[in-house]
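Saturday, quiet lab. Running sequence design on the C-alpha cells for the scaffold JK sent over.
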C-alpha cells in the first residue's frame, strides 16, 4: 500500500555544495505492518519520515499510497492528504500546552469538519483506548507524565483514522518501561486496526520486534543481508 520508488532528498551543504540526505531509497510496506527505521544520527531518518508523511516533497522519485502518487500533490492536496491519512508522533510529544488532553485529541477532527459532540466522544474513546482515563483527560499536558503525554500524542495521531502512523523516536524521552509500553501500544494498533506504523528508533532490541526493519547509512538503505544477524 505504501511504495517508495527511488526517492532522494537533496539539501545544500555548508560549503555551498549539495548532498543527498535521503539517497535513492526504494521499499514497500504493506497495510497493517509494524516497521522500524534505524541508523546513526544524521543518516536521514527524520528526513525520510517527513517525506513519507508528506511534510516535505522528495527532490526526485515517487511515493505512492494505495496507488496515488503523493509526490505529485500540490500544497493544498498535501495538507488534505496529511490531515486525513497520516498520524504523526514526535519524540517531544508536541502537544498544545494550554489545551487539556481531551482538547488536544479533539483538535485534528476540527480540520475534517466533525461536530463538537462527535469530536468529544471520539477523543474520549481514543484516550481510553491508549489507557488515559478519568480525570487525566481533563488535565493539561504539563500535569501529565512523559508516558501519559506520549499516549495523548498517539490518541491525537489516531483521531482521523489515518492509514499510516509515523513516529519519530516516540520512546526517546521515556524510561525503558514506559518506552516499551508505548512501543507495544503502537504494535497493537498495527495489528488490531490494520494501521501501517513506521517508527524511528535507536533501540535495536525494540526494532528487532517489528515486522519489517530498515536501516539507513548516509541516506542509503542497507540491504537486509548487511544487517547484524540479531536484527534480520
Ligand atoms: N532542512 C535541512 N536543510 C539542510 N540540511 C538538512 C535539513 N534537514 C536535515 N538536514 C541534514 O540532513 C542529514 C539527515 O538529517 P536527519 O534529520 O534526517 O537525520 P536523522 O537520521 O534523523 O538524525 P538524528 O538521529 O540525529 O535525529 C543531516 O546531515 C542533516 O544535517
Ligand atoms: Mg532525526
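Result came back. Writing it out in full:
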Amino acid at each position: 500500500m505504501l511504495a517508495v520508488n527511488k526517492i532522494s532528498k537533496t539539501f545544500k551543504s555548508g560549503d555551498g555544495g549539495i548532498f543527498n540526505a535521503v539517497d535513492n531509497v526504494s521499499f514497500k510496506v504493506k497495510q497493517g505492518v509494524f516497521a522500524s527505521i534505524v541508523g546513526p544520527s544524521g543518516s536521514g531518518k527524520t528526513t525520510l519520515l517527513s517525506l513519507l508523511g508528506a511534510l516535505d516533497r522528495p527532490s526526485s522519485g515517487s511515493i505512492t499510497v494505495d496507488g496515488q502518487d503523493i509526490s505529485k500533490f500540490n500544497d493544498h492536496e498535501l495538507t488534505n492528504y496529511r490531515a486525513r491519512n497520516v498520524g504523526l508522533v514526535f519524540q517531544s510529544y508536541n502537544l498544545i500546552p494550554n489545551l487539556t488532553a481531551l482538547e488536544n485529541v479533539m483538535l485534528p477532527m476540527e480540520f475534517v469538519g466533525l461536530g463538537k459532540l462527535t469530536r468529544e466522544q471520539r477523543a474520549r474513546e481514543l484516550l481510553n483506548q491508549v489507557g488515559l482515563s478519568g480525570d487525566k483527560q481533563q488535565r493539561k499536558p504539563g500535569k501529565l507524565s512523559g508516558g501519559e503525554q506520549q499516549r495523548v500524542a498517539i490518541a491525537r495521531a489516531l483521531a482521523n483514522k489515518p492509514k499510516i502512523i509515523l513516529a519519530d523516536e516516540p520512546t526517546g524521552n521515556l524510561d525503558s518501561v514506559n518506552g516499551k509500553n508505548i512501543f507495544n501500544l503502537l504494535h497493537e494498533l498495527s495489528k488490531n486496526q490494520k494501521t501501517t506504523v513506521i517508527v524511528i528508533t535507536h533501540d535495536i532490541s525494540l526494532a528487532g520486534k517489528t515486522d519489517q526493519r530498515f536501516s539507513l547509512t548516509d541516506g542509503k538503505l542497507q540491504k537486509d543481508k548487511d544487517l547484524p544477524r540479531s536484527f534480520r
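Notes for JK: Helices lie at 45-52, 75-85, 101-111, 116-129, 146-158, 176-193, 204-207. The chain has one domain: 2-227. Ask whether to fix the surface positions before the next round.
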